[in-house]
Design goal:
Length: about 150
C-alpha cells in the first residue's frame, strides 16, 4: 500500500519531463546511544520546477516511525537570497499524528543561516507532542566547502 501511495505522489509531483530546476536530495543521520542499537535516520526530499516540496523520513520523529511532508518553497534575491518552505505532514508508526514546520535559508555573500522548526502532535498521546528548532550559521569560503 505504501509503495502505491509513493508512486502516486511521485507521478503527481513529476507530471512531465524533468526540469533543470528539479532538486532531489538525501540525508542520512545515525544516532548512537549507550546500550542501544544504532538508530538509522534516512531522509529524502524533492522540489519540483514549480517549487512544490515533498520529504520522506524514517525514525526522525520517533523510532520505527515513517513521515511524509508536503509544502511549497518561496525564494528570491540575488546578493541577499532567501528561501522559506512551510511544510505539513503525516506521522505513522510508533507515533501517529500530524506535524507542521518551516524550513528556511538565508544567504549573504559567503555567509548563510539555515533553520528548521517543527511542531508535531500525536493523535494518541498528547505527552508525545513536541516542538523543536534546529539552526545553523556558517561561512562558505568555497562553493563545496563550509
Amino acid at each position: 500500500m505504501r509503495n502505491h501511495a509513493l508512486t502516486i505522489l511521485l507521478l503527481w509531483l513529476f507530471p512531465g519531463s524533468a526540469s533543470p530546476q528539479l532538486k532531489i536530495g538525501a540525508e542520512y543521520y545515525t544516532y548512537i546511544q549507550q546500550q542501544e542499537p544504532l538508530t538509522h535516520v534516512p531522509l529524502v526530499y524533492v522540489q519540483t520546477n514549480k517549487n512544490w516540496y515533498a520529504e520522506l523520513r524514517y525514525n526522525y520523529e520517533e523510532l520505527q516511525t515513517f513521515s511524509i511532508y508536503l509544502g511549497k518553497n518561496f525564494s528570491g534575491g540575488e546578493n541577499f537570497s532567501y528561501s522559506f518552505t512551510p511544510i505539513a505532514g503525516k506521522i505513522m508508526g510508533n507515533m501517529n499524528g500530524y506535524s507542521i514546520g518551516l524550513n528556511s535559508d538565508l544567504e549573504y555573500k559567503k555567509f548563510f543561516f539555515s533553520s528548521q522548526s517543527q511542531y508535531s502532535a500525536s493523535v494518541n498521546d498528547r505527552y508525545q507532542n513536541f516542538f523543536f528548532a534546529w539552526s545553523e550559521l556558517g561561512y562558505k569560503p568555497l562553493k563545496w566547502f563550509y
